[in-house]
Design a protein that fits this description.
By secondary structure, the protein is of the alpha/beta class. The protein folds into 2 domains: 350 residues, LCP protein (Aminopeptidase, 3-Layer(aba) Sandwich); 98 residues, Alpha-Beta Plaits. The chain contains 15 helices and 20 strands. The strands form 6 sheets. The chain has a 7-stranded mixed β-sheet, with helices on both faces.
């Protein structure tokens, strides 16, 4: 839900660039900016030496608009939001827009990610904003400050804590901040004429209001909100919800970047009204400079990714709360690698997903069931299941991943997930697939050995019992794709 708002923010920003391309007056662009609610966030950076802009997009689980006005009963009903007060940040995405005009990157952080937060210790990242805000507000009221002023300063403290937490987790300095609530996602989706999505199977989940058939369909604002809010009855829970949010973001961003929906003054008016009511931006943005960067990006792509997790069904240190366990050092290394690929313009690497590779596994040992066990590991990581059996070709001296080309992205991903196996060229392996040959030296995931690479990686943190088969980080798709893949 909040993620969609995030999506809208991306669409909003990209929309400004398209406005210029499609001939809408610059005064209209200024009208977008002037009517948006701006906030001060002192911990924000001022851009790195590379000129890239790093934006923290936050989706708020709020029942108010950007100006603090309560939503009407009719609006709450249409959004299936209820009337309880909430300040959780259930969508958290870090977006880097480069100065070089190459592919931008949007990195999702699952709402239940277990992190260290300033003043709070270890906690779920979606509660950092709300917990910090409330503690600050109560303290100020008790010291004699007026409630309205205490509320304002508490909110500012909450934003600051979240910005610092994301920066510490990812190693990226945040330059700008954008926030949107439940209503905003719905309004902006409707302003853009709805969003196209595709489901592998039909879904019915009353808590979120998700009730959709399988296949391609166009969703209006409230329907799209239900689509991205659902996490119950999904195979991977919140991680599959993140995938849905990324798919929606990619679809909306494609609509904006392609310029198909923004040549109409009526569309622009609807979009402006939606943004001004629902979006909060940090002060100090140079809008003209930002637009210039987006104009460069309009011919490129936006790649969507999720940080690596150790255990999607982990527990907090006190054993009281279900959390998503991560290794901060692993996250920082992964983010650095992802941004390096972005800077190099390696869009294929950014857009690769495991389901594009079929993993065939053969056993070249006397250990019964080894190939099946390793195949299950790869399937759990998102690779398409291939054939499983005994090796009927020449024996190998060491375990390996065979592919038509040594630089095949799928082969490299499989090799990495199995503990760093070598990739061997085998031109008989069809493109889009790999052949994993397991020899007696194999000790990686699925081998059942406590000292395997996956176990060692899990034990490198304080996570207790990590799920070594947890899905790896993987970019989902790019906004340049008009037909994103179907999802759960």
């Amino acid at each position: 839900m909040p993620e969609q708002r995030v999506t809208r923010v991306i669409a909003t920003v990209a929309a400004v660039a398209v406005v210029l391309v499609t001939g809408v007056a610059w005064s209209k662009v200024r009208a977008f900016e002037d009517g948006i609610y701006h906030v001060f966030a002192p911990s924000l950076g001022h851009g790195g030496d590379d000129g890239a802009i790093d934006i923290l997009l936050v989706g708020m689980d709020s029942r108010t608009d950007a100006h603090g006005n309560p939503l009407s009963a009719q609006e709450l009903a249409s959004l299936r939001a209820g009337d309880e007060t909430a300040t959780n940040t259930d969508t958290i995405i870090l977006v880097r827009i480069p100065d070089n005009g190459k592919s931008a990157t949007a990195i999702s952080i699952p709402r239940d990610t277990y992190v260290s937060a300033p003043g709070l210790g270890k906690t779920k990242i979606n509660g950092v904003y709300g917990q910090t805000k409330e503690e600050k507000r109560v303290s100020l009221v008790e010291s004699g400050m007026a409630p309205n002023e205490a509320e304002r300063e508490g909110t500012e403290a909450g934003r600051e804590a979240l910005i610092k937490t994301v920066a510490d987790l990812t190693g990226v300095t945040v330059d700008h901040y954008a926030e949107i609530g439940l209503l905003g996602f719905s309004l902006i989706t409707d302003a853009l004429g709805g969003v196209n999505v595709c489901l592998k199977e039909p879904v019915y989940e009353p808590l979120s209001g998700a009730d959709f058939p399988a296949g391609w369909q166009k969703l209006n604002g409230p329907q799209a909100l239900s689509f991205v809010r659902q996490r119950h009855e999904l195979p991977r829970g919140d991680l599959d919800r993140v995938v849905r949010q990324q798919v929606v973001m990619a679809s909306l961003a494609h609509q904006v970047i392609s310029g198909k929906t923004l040549s109409s003054p009526a569309t622009m008016n609807r979009l402006q009204q939606a943004i001004q009511r629902s979006v909060v931006l940090s002060s100090g943005w140079d809008i003209m400079d930002f637009v210039n960067q987006l104009q460069k990006l309009a011919g490129g792509k936006i790649a969507f990714a999720t940080i690596p997790v150790l255990d999607e069904s982990g527990w907090s240190d006190d054993g009281m709360h279900s959390v998503v366990r991560v290794d901060p050092h692993q996250v920082q290394d992964w983010v650095a690698g992802l941004l390096h690929n972005q800077a190099q313009g390696k869009t294929e690497e950014l857009a690769y997903t495991p389901n594009k590779t079929t993993a065939n596994v053969v056993n070249d040992t006397d250990i019964n069931g080894l190939a099946a066990s390793v195949s299950e590991v790869l399937t759990s990581k998102g690779f398409a299941a291939g054939t499983v059996g005994n090796n009927d070709a020449a024996h190998v001296a060491a375990s390996q991943v065979q592919a038509a080309k040594a630089d095949d992205l799928g082969a490299q991903a499989v090799a990495k997930d199995l503990g760093g196996l070598p990739v061997i060229t085998n031109k008989s392996v069809p493109p889009g697939s790999v052949r994993v040959v397991l020899a007696n030296d194999y000790t990686g995931p699925g081998a059942g050995l406590s000292d395997g690479p996956a176990t060692m990686a899990a034990n490198s943190t304080n996570s207790g019992s990590a799920n070594t088969n947890a899905p790896p980080p993987s970019p989902i798709l790019t906004a340049g794709s008009e037909h994103p893949e179907c999802v759960n």
